[in-house]
Specification:
305 residues, Beta-lactamase, 2 domains, five-stranded antiparallel β-sheet, two-stranded antiparallel ribbon, binds glutamine
Length: 305
């Protein structure tokens, strides 16, 4: 029954694929097949449902900002992170540097590039990339996660804009360490290869207050609460407000086509759909989640009867 609903959700999203495009500003992402579509749902009771291209690997891109924020909160602490990065939606594109000029020069939030590059600079001296890779595997329950070297090299060859952001952050005193190391760390985190299933695993961890399916606590409760709140308000970039109204499930998108969603206390949802809308969010993914949210009353403010 639930499987039927998921199949139906996927088909509800599929017609929208043609209205979007795959990202091409990172050349390697332009090679993705725009027609791919898959959804995985991992529930707290241990049941798992999948439909479509849920085992295809793609780069996590901005969804890594969730992992990095969680690790930064654990390793550097709440105060250190939020003294340097805000918690407000920016209303601008994910790669914007407009609001970095002016009196309040801090990045608006950790879910956009400027904020995540700052967060990378906080973590990088304390946690190695190899350790982050291992953490990502644990959080997602997926030992198959590796650094996608092609995507990494491709992004590094077109990284000028993020490099500009990083140096602007240094000039404002937000980044104090080695800027190039922070940038490299950020791009490597974006280049982790995941599947819709890995994202469902990560979603379940967050839905379950930071406790993995074996009962082991991987993240503090406070960390998980903060991460989910920032996902709700800022996870879909300048589309976050409308998404919160229409779907109402804390989510994070990436330009690789991934979507991570957390139905609190219930389930983690992972979607792969590389055809993106103008804001860089999976276009079919949005529609799938909207369908599931209304059919299953998953909106955080859905009337419970
Ligand atoms: N929105 C995204 O997924 C952006 C991530 C990408 N690596 C970038 O920095 O541009």
């Amino acid at each position: 029954m639930f499987q039927d609903l998921i199949n139906e959700a996927l088909e509800t999203g599929r017609p929208y694929i043609k209205e979007g495009e795959v990202a091409t500003y990172i050349p390697e992402l332009g090679r993705a097949d725009k027609n791919k579509l898959g959804i995985s749902i991992f529930c707290r009771d241990g049941s798992r449902f999948s439909c479509g291209d849920t085992k295809d690997r793609f780069s996590i891109q901005s969804i890594s900002k969730v992992i990095s924020l969680a690790v930064a909160l654990e390793v550097c602490g709440f105060d250190m992170v939020f003294e340097n990065v805000g918690m407000e939606p920016s209303g601008d594109a994910f790669n914007s540097l407009i609001k970095l000029e002016g009196s309040n020069s801090h990045p608006y939030n950790p879910m956009i590039n400027s904020g995540a590059i700052a967060v990378a600079s906080f973590i990088e001296p304390k946690v190695s990339f190899e350790e982050m890779l291992e953490l990502a595997r644990c959080f997602c329950q997926d030992d198959g996660i590796v650094l996608d070297e092609k995507v990494y090299r491709s992004e590094m060859s077109t990284v000028a804009r993020n490099r500009a952001i990083a140096y602007l952050l240094e000039s404002k005193g937000v980044i104090n360490g080695n800027v190039e190391e922070a940038l490299d760390f950020y791009v490597k985190m974006c280049s982790l290869s995941v599947t819709a299933e890995s994202l469902a695993g990560l979603g379940l961890l967050l839905a379950n207050d930071g406790v993995d399916p074996s009962g082991k606590r991987l993240l503090n409760s406070d960390t998980v609460r903060v991460v989910k709140t920032i996902m709700l308000t800022c996870g879909m970039y300048d589309g976050s407000g409308e998404f919160a109204v229409r779907v109402g499930i804390p989510s994070k998108s990436g330009v690789g086509g991934g979507l991570l969603s957390v139905v609190d206390g219930k389930m983690g949802i992972g979607i792969y759909g590389p055809s993106l809308d103008a804001k860089g969010n999976s276009i079919a993914g949005r529609k799938i989640l909207q369908f599931l949210s209304s059919q299953m009353k998953l909106h955080i403010f859905a009337k419970k009867d």
